Amino acid sequence: MPDAPADAAKRRAVAPVLCYPAERLPRPDSGRIDAVLSDLTPVDGLRVPPRDAAAIRVPKGHVLRILSVEGPQVGDLNLFAAANLAERFYSGKTRALHGTHLGTGDRMWSCFPYLRPMATVAADSLDWYGTDAWGARVHDVIGTRCDPYTGRLLSDADYHHCCHSNLTRALAQATGLGRVAAEAHVHDVLNVFMCTGFTADRGQYFMKASPVRPGDHFDLLAEIDLLAVLSACPGGDCGTEHSSDTAACHPLEMEVLAPSAAVLAAWREPPVSGYDRSHGV
Question: Is it the case that residue 241 has pLDDT exceeding 90?
Answer without folding.
Answer: no
